[in-house]
Structure to design on (224 residues):
């Protein structure tokens, strides 16, 4: 089975740094995705981790520890436009690409 | 740019009606997916397809069926709509293979009364 946990909601201040955690328990882990979804819009891809370590992409970084079943998304120099839901998705085992999504973390950035 | 389009942004149907939700992608992607998104429950997979005429059940297929007659088009069918199928429906596509991200359509907000 698959179990993915994320905090429901987080708040942060413009210009700050925020870390959104995702823990998972899956059979046969094969990669983890992070997506951003603004209210009323479609999710858009942010990052993909399959090996342990930190992947940096501009203001956003994503970290993975496979042994701990843990990932985080790090957002630096927060901007108001970063207010959105952040979805963690784990690729299931097996040959087909079927991601399981967590319930998402709603991030509110205030001035 | 990859584009995934859905036939309607908003749809209101009556209980018992047959409902068709259409999704089209323009990037020749092998994989296509249908999700529903509900507050507090996140994205849940209804059905997916990895090739024309191929389909696989996701986590919550009951009450739904799908059709993929052409590579670019993936349809979700509610045979007899019920009020508990009121939801946001999102279509997605991806290149075949394990490491490729999904591209999502704008969603269809379906209300069943």
């Amino acid at each position: 089975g698959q179990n993915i946990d994320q905090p429901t909601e987080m708040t942060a201040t413009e210009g700050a740094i925020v870390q959104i955690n995702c823990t998972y328990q899956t059979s046969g882990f094969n990669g983890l995705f992070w997506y951003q979804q603004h209210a009323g819009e479609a999710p858009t891809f942010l990052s993909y981790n399959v090996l342990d370590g930190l992947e940096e992409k501009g203001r956003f970084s994503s970290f993975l520890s496979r042994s701990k079943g843990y990932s985080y998304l790090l957002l630096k120099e927060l901007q108001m436009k970063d207010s959105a839901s952040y979805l963690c998705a784990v690729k299931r085992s097996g040959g087909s690409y079927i991601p399981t999504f967590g319930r998402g973390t709603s991030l509110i950035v205030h001035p | 740019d990859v584009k995934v389009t859905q036939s309607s942004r908003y749809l209101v149907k009556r209980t018992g009606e047959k409902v068709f939700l259409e999704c089209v992608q323009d990037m020749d992607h092998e994989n296509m997916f249908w999700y529903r998104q509900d507050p507090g429950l996140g994205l849940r997979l209804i059905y997916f397809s990895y090739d024309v005429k191929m389909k696989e059940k996701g986590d919550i297929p009951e009450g739904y069926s799908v059709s993929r007659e052409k590579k670019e088009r993936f349809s979700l069918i509610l045979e007899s709509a019920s009020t508990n199928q009121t939801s946001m429906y999102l279509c997605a596509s991806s290149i075949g293979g394990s490491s490729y991200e999904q591209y999502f359509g704008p969603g269809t907000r379906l209300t069943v009364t």
Summary: The interface with chain B takes residues 30-31, 33, 41-45, 48, 50, 87, 89, 91, 96-104 of chain A (CB under 8 Å). Residues 18 and 73 of chain A are 8 Å apart (CA to CA). Chain A has a mean pLDDT of 92. The radius of gyration of chain A is 14 Å.
